[in-house]
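In response to a reviewer's request, we include the raw inputs and outputs for one of the modeled complexes. The two entities were modeled together in a single run.
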Amino acid sequence: MRKHVSAPLPIARTVADLRSAIAAERNNSRTTGLIPTMGALHEGHLSLVRAAKQRCGFVVATLFVNPKQFAPHEDFDRYPRNEAGDADLLASAGCDLLYAPGRSVMYPDGFATSVLVSNVSTMLEGQMRPHFFGGVATVVTKLLLQALPDAAFFGEKDYQQLLVIRQLTRDLDIPVEIVGCPTVRERDGLALSSRNAYLSAAERRVASRLNVVLHDAIKALRAGAPVDAVEGEASRHLAAAGFTSVDYVAVRNAATLQPVASLAEPARILAAAWLGKTRLIDNMAV
Amino acid sequence: MRKHVSAPLPIARTVADLRSAIAAERNNSRTTGLIPTMGALHEGHLSLVRAAKQRCGFVVATLFVNPKQFAPHEDFDRYPRNEAGDADLLASAGCDLLYAPGRSVMYPDGFATSVLVSNVSTMLEGQMRPHFFGGVATVVTKLLLQALPDAAFFGEKDYQQLLVIRQLTRDLDIPVEIVGCPTVRERDGLALSSRNAYLSAAERRVASRLNVVLHDAIKALRAGAPVDAVEGEASRHLAAAGFTSVDYVAVRNAATLQPVASLAEPARILAAAWLGKTRLIDNMAV
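The model returned the following structure tokens for the whole complex.
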């Protein structure tokens, strides 16, 4: 296996360059793993690079802050950007190529197509951020078709996004394996997120309660408490812990995200809550 | 070049079978040309097969009557179906493989994704048949991604559809060349269409006026008549010729289908009109 720790990471800016790099590796019988990111990389992303490196000979990370998945009032402009730092982190984790297309490569003048996923994208995040999954589905479809990798790696941190991507990949017959990887957490259990960088010290202390409240909720569910009661209790605990507001705490079917009647079906607990202007999400298997 | 005139045409029913047939040809350095159809084949489709055979070593026609591009009141149930006859015609034209997936292959339980094209799909056919291009864009995306051919061939008869397919292919970065082929016509100029089979003898005689009226309109435009006047005159001529109703006669920019101010830009004249329960379309370069 090649290492790029000391050499700078090669960067492709166009679809043609991306495809020719991947074709060259394929001609050498190396499979390709793709890791779509919006940059602002952290250990969670790097864990995806390492997982890809385990399975694929050639690992490509993408960096594109996708305007289509931000609403006008959201944080597109202040979203953290540091391509050089990201490239160094990727190289250190064993990534072989960074694909960082400009906006005109992804959305040239006259761009007019969107990919929409119904069912699994309509509730929770889809309800709170109606533009979001349309933007994600379209850009992920493009990245998958630009690279046509053997496998693509996504974190379970964005659990609903992972389900949306599995759905569109299956429905559109994109020939790629979608691999979900476990959420990486800080020592106090806070799920790593690029948006954690927005938190003040005081908010950061409150943020660590999110995963604790979800763990407590799972305990209560396993002890037989009714789903409704547990969801309500968890929301109240988050507010009491100092969260500014709670978008949802929901126990759902792990495959469909439909409400669950009992724990007889595989379930997932998902939450979204605000700390000032920062929105945090987390989820766990029940 | 191989011929299958006497041998029955091989038929693939699953994505796996389709992909393995194409992969085998690709391993022998043969390129693949794809011709999506809804069956009910005529000389227009066969001209696409021949065009594909000119450019590609391996030619695959698909046959799937796509329910998503029919509205509930449209002719999905009575749409002509004759797979065995279609297979014979395809073989005689040099086609190498028929891909005829069942509905559960194309739209398995839980199918939830759609591809939507704005701009070029919103007017004309998109306005008269609001469900239509969503269904077309989704199924064509699927067929292109199932086969990943080098080129795909579509008739100019469905001119707006051709533009929609070019747009989605470009926007989603599907690695395929879209080839548009000229409309094939009867001796009296009627554009070949599977729906011509619905026409009574009397309707068939009226139908032949559609292309004549469009030719006359082009002459008038070239002679300097204003676009609005020509469109209105052509509609009146169709009604006078016996068409039951006229959905539109429109002179549009040939690339964007936006209204044209003058013939300084490349223009196309497009029309849709009814004969009883049968809807005919046609178009020509101006």
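As requested, we also summarize the result in words. The beta strands of chain A are 11-12, 32-37, 58-63, 97-99, 113-117, 151-155, 177-181, 245-253, 267-275, 278-285. The longest helix of chain A spans residues 132-147.
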